[in-house]
Give the backbone structure.
Amino acid sequence: MKVMVTGGAGFIGSHFAKRLATAGDTVVVLDKLTYAGNPRNLEGFDIPLVVGDIADPEAVARAAAGCDAIVNFAAESHVDRSILAAGDFITTDVFGTHILLEHARKHDLRYVQVSTDEVYGDLEPGNSAVESDPIVPSSPYSASKAGGDLQVLAYVRTHGVNASISRGANTYGPFQYPEKLVSLFTTNALDGQPLPVYGDGKQRREWIHAEDHCAGIDLVLRQGEPGGIYNVGGEERENIDVIERILALTGASSDLLKHVTDRPGHDRRYSIDSAKLRSLGWERKWDFTEGLKQTVEWYAERRDWWEPIKSGEYLAFYREQYAERLGQ
Ligand code: NAD
Ligand code: DAU
């Protein structure tokens, strides 16, 4: 199969592109190389990279020539950035998805939309979202992802596009841009910098290693039904538990931990039921303890990967997001 992986120079997309290439599929990556895209994520693999925007029909047509399928990872993906400025989220996550669906419709391509458990919104303790649940997103990011999902379902029903949706949990692993909880706190801890915990730190997320997330998406690509939605879940943990594990694994002092002003609209808990995907044969290979250890060790060894990122645009974002919170 020849697959166009959009956003394949980002965190999860690069794991996916390398997984397919290793398995013998032909892969082409279409990526705009925003602040989060990094060609180094594909180093060591002979994967063609087309630099372009999913919202540009000509770039999409150029990259997708001869492809049988599109798997769409391209997105603005960070909740905090969507709170600071949401415009790019609408352009990429909603309009960009529309352009890709148009291409899939015209050329009769298989299509997978990589979505998120955040579209289900805040979940009460004891409750886990199933795929038929309503979507009630809380942040501008999750609202834009929900907009993408609704476009996909409309194209399946109206135009008969052969498209499925995966909804994954919080993903961690090597090659994650250092702005998310695990990648930011690990790199800060390694540098002796503060770890800014939003609010009480008792929010709960499901954590899944990028390789397990990609295995789930791969199964959806090959076996998902048109219009089918598939949750790809992880292990539920309180943020503060994740943070204490990072402190222990890096050997950093707990004095670095700083409780700061909470994220506006912050969801307390995500939880998804992955029974549907498991019924297709999917299971996680990484448990959280082992996966987090492997990830922290990778960041400790790969300063050459993340230190250059923590400059320029990154520092401007970091100041805007954290300086006042940390009293800097
Ligand atoms: P990321 O921010 O690391 O990577 C996104 C990639 O998309 C980057 O390479 C970027 O350059 C590219 N991109 C952005 N706008 C583009 C555009 N207009 N055209 C072409 N390329 C563009 O994101 P990630 O964490 O790897 O997430 C990938 C996908 O998985 C996203 O759709 C996200 O919503 C979804 N997801 C992420 C998680 C998570 O925990 N990270 C969990 C569930 C779902
Ligand atoms: O659930 C899937 C989603 O997971 C994906 O769709 C998103 O693309 C991905 O960014 C992630 O969203 P979250 O908002 O859950 O991830 P983040 O790493 O930003 O935050 C995880 C938790 O940690 C959340 O409760 C907020 C908290 N946090 C995060 C940061 C960056 C802090 O307390 N301090 C921080 O500085």
